[in-house]
Design brief:
By secondary structure, the protein is mostly beta strands. It contains 1 helix and 36 strands. It has a 5-stranded antiparallel beta sheet, with no helix packed on it. It has a 5-stranded mixed beta sheet with strand order 18-22-21-20-19, with no helix packed on it. Strands 31, 32, 34, 35 and 36 form a 5-stranded antiparallel beta sheet that branches. A hairpin with a 7-residue loop joins strand 23 and strand 24. The structure holds 2-acetamido-2-deoxy-beta-D-glucopyranose (3 copies). One 2-acetamido-2-deoxy-beta-D-glucopyranose binds next to loops.
C-alpha cells in the first residue's frame, strides 16, 4: 500500500525554521533577563489571571517559564531552559506551579522532568521517570518524561506521556521489515513517592489501534532509529471513569483506555472513524489537549484544541471545540466553536484549550506554533490576545491563564546607579512576587542598614520600578517591597559609594 505523502512528519513541527525573529525583547536593570516584550489587545471584559507561557524556538532570548500580567508586564521569569505545560494546578489542595523542563528532540517529543513549586517558588517535588527506553540518538537520559503532558490528578498523581523507539515491520504502511517507529506511552506517577502506579503502551494494543489508520505520512527518510515513524503521537492524558482518556494526534482521535488496559472506545474527529456519531461542526484533526468535564454514567462534556492543519498547508481555521458526549446513544454534539474571525489562525502543531471557569464560561487557548494566547468569553468572542513572538518562529507548547499568588523565598533586587555627585537612580524588582504594590526606599549611614532614613515611596510599575533620588552623596540604601504599608520583603543593603552610571560595574545585589 502506498501512503499519501502528507508533506512532512513531525520533525518540522518542533524544529521551528530559520526564520528571522525581529520580535522586541525587554531590557531590565535588576535581572539578567530578556523576555519577549508581549503585545496585548483587549476587546472585552476578561477573567482574572496571569498569562503563563514557555516560549522556545528561534528567538535570541527568553527561553524560560514566563508569567505576564494582562497589561504586558513581566511578573516572573524562570531559569533559561526549554519548558512545557507551565501552569498552576492543585496538589494536596494547594495551588502549585508545575512545568516540564528538558531536551526537545527534533522529532517533536522530549525527555525531561516535571518540576512542582510552591507559592514561594521552592521546588517541593521533582517527578522523574526511569525505565528501559530507546532514544533516537541511542543516549540514555536521567528521566524519560515527555513534554506533552504534566497533568496533576484529583488523587495527587501526575499523568505524563513518554515516547520509545521500537523496531517493527512497517510493510503494511509502505515501510520495511526492519524499520523503527515511536511507541506512545503514558504513565500515572504518585507525586509524593515518584512511583509509577499505572503504565500503558499504544503499541501493545496494535490490534485495536492499527497502524494503517495513522494519518501520519510516510517518507523516504523515515524509519531509522534516528528518524523513527511517529505513528501515534500521544499528547494528552486525562482521568476518566475507570481509566483514562488519551489524545492520539496522528489518529485524529481520543480513546478511552480502561485501567485493565483495554481500549474501550474511540472518539474520532473524522466522519465514520470511531464509535461516535459527530455533527459536522465537530470534525477535528491533528488535535491537542482533550479535557473532560461533568462526567456521569450517561455522558460527559469534552473540550479540545483543534489544530485542523497539516504542517505543509493552511487547511482550515484552528478552533477550540466543546462537545456534549452522549454515552447512551454514542453521539457527540458540538456546543462551542472558538474562532477569532479577525485573526484566523492556522496552527500546525502544539496548542491548548483551558476552560477558565464554569461560572463565566471564558476559555484561554494557547496556539502552539503560533505565538499567541487568546481568551474568549461565553459568547465565543475573543476578549484578549497576547502575542509573544513571530508566528512559526517561536512557540509555546501550551499557553495558559492562571490565577496565582506568590511571595518568593528570594529577596527583592536593587540596582543603584550614580547619575551625579549627589544623585542616584534606584531600580528595584522582585521576580515572581504578585502581592506587593509599592516600594519604600531607605538610606542608611551603615552597611547593615541600621538607623534607616525614609527617602521615598514608589508605586509598583510593572516588573521593575525606578526612582531618582537627590542629596545622597554616600552611605547605603535598602528597598522594601510592601502591600499597602505591610512589608513583604527587603533587599540586600546596597552601597552608594559607586562610580557614575557611564562607568562600568554598578553595585547591585543579585537577582534570584
Ligand atoms: C476491562 O474492563 C472492561 C469493563 O469492565 C471489560 O469490558 C474488559 O473486557 C476488561 N478487559 C480485560 C482485559 O479484562
Ligand atoms: C457542566 O455542566 C454545567 C451545568 O449544566 C454547565 O453549566 C457547564 O457548561 C458544563 N461544562 C461544560 C464544559 O460543558
Ligand atoms: C473562522 O473564521 C473565518 C473568518 O471569518 C471563517 O472563514 C471560517 O469559516 C471560520 N471557521 C470556523 C470553523 O468557524
Amino acid at each position: 500500500m502506498v501512503r499519501p505523502l502528507f508533506a512532512t512528519c513531525s520533525a518540522l513541527l518542533f524544529s521551528l525554521g530559520a526564520l528571522a525573529d525581529n520580535w522586541p525583547f525587554m531590557t531590565l536593570q535588576t535581572a539578567p533577563f530578556a523576555p519577549p516584550d508581549v503585545s496585548i489587545e483587549k476587546s472585552g471584559v476578561t477573567d482574572p489571571g496571569y498569562i503563563f507561557i514557555g516560549p522556545r524556538g528561534n528567538q535570541p532570548a527568553g527561553t524560560a517559564a514566563l508569567i505576564y500580567d494582562e497589561d504586558g508586564n513581566l511578573v516572573y521569569q524562570g531559569p533559561t531552559e526549554v519548558t512545557a505545560n507551565f501552569k498552576v494546578q492543585k496538589l494536596f489542595n494547594e495551588d502549585v506551579i508545575t512545568f516540564w523542563a528538558g531536551d526537545m528532540m527534533k522529532l517533536g517529543f522530549g525527555y525531561g522532568t516535571v518540576h512542582i513549586l510552591d507559592d514561594t517558588y521552592r521546588e517541593i517535588y521533582t517527578v522523574t521517570l526511569k525505565g528501559d527506553f530507546t532514544s533516537p540518538d541511542g543516549a540514555s537520559r536521567d528521566s524519560y518524561i515527555d513534554l506533552h503532558e504534566s497533568r496533576v490528578t484529583s488523587r495527587n498523581t501526575l499523568l505524563v506521556t513518554a515516547y520509545n523507539v521500537i523496531q517493527h515491520d512497517l510493510s503494511v504502511i509502505g515501510g520495511r521489515p526492519t524499520d523503527h517507529m515511536l511507541d506512545s506511552k503514558f504513565y500515572e506517577i504518585d507525586i509524593a513517592t515518584n512511583e509509577v502506579v499505572f503504565e500503558w503502551s499504544t503499541f501493545d494494543h496494535i490490534a485495536d489501534i492499527p497502524l494503517e489508520e495513522s494519518k501520519q505520512g510516510w517518507g523516504d527518510d523515515v524509519g531509522s532509529q534516528e528518524t523513527p515513524y511517529d505513528a501515534y503521537h500521544i499528547n494528552s492524558v486525562e482521568l476518566f471513569d475507570e481509566g483514562y482518556i488519551i489524545s492520539l494526534r496522528h489518529y485524529w482521535s481520543g480513546y478511552y483506555i480502561h485501567n485493565n488496559g483495554t481500549v474501550m472506545w474511540r472518539l474520532g474527529g473524522e466522519p465514520g472513524k470511531g464509535d461516535f456519531e459527530l455533527d459536522r461542526n465537530g470534525e477535528f484533526s491533528w488535535q491537542h489537549d482533550i479535557r473532560i468535564y461533568n462526567e456521569t454514567q450517561e455522558g460527559f462534556a469534552m473540550t479540545l484544541f483543534n489544530n485542523a492543519n497539516t504542517p505543509s498547508s493552511s487547511v482550515a481555521a484552528t478552533t477550540g471545540l466543546s462537545f456534549d458526549v452522549d454515552l447512551v446513544n454514542f453521539k457527540a454534539k458540538t456546543t462551542r466553536v472558538l474562532n477569532d474571525t479577525d485573526d484566523v489562525i492556522h496552527s500546525v502543531s502544539q496548542g491548548s484549550y483551558q476552560l477558565l471557569s464554569e461560572h463565566t464560561g471564558h476559555v484561554a487557548m494557547g496556539y502552539g506554533s503560533i505565538a499567541e494566547v487568546k481568551e474568549f468569553d461565553a459568547d465565543n468572542n475573543e476578549v484578549l490576545t497576547v502575542k509573544f513572538g513571530e508566528p512559526n518562529a517561536v512557540a509555546s507548547y501550551r499557553g495558559y491563564k492562571c490565577q496565582w499568588k506568590a511571595t518568593p523565598f528570594w529577596k527583592p533586587a536593587v540596582v543603584v546607579q550614580r547619575t551625579g555627585p549627589s544623585t542616584v537612580v534606584v531600580h528595584m524588582s522582585w521576580n515572581g512576587a504578585t502581592e506587593y504594590d509599592n516600594w519604600a526606599v531607605y538610606s542608611s549611614a551603615y552597611s547593615d542598614g541600621s538607623d534607616p532614613k525614609f527617602q521615598a515611596l514608589v508605586n509598583r510599575a510593572g516588573f521593575e520600578s525606578t526612582i531618582e533620588l537627590n542629596g545622597l552623596s554616600g552611605g547605603f540604601l535598602q528597598v522594601i517591597a510592601r502591600k499597602g504599608d505591610i512589608p513583604l520583603g527587603s533587599s540586600d543593603v546596597a552601597s552608594l559609594e559607586i562610580a557614575p552610571a557611564d562607568e562600568p560595574a554598578p553595585t547591585s545585589s543579585a537577582a534570584a
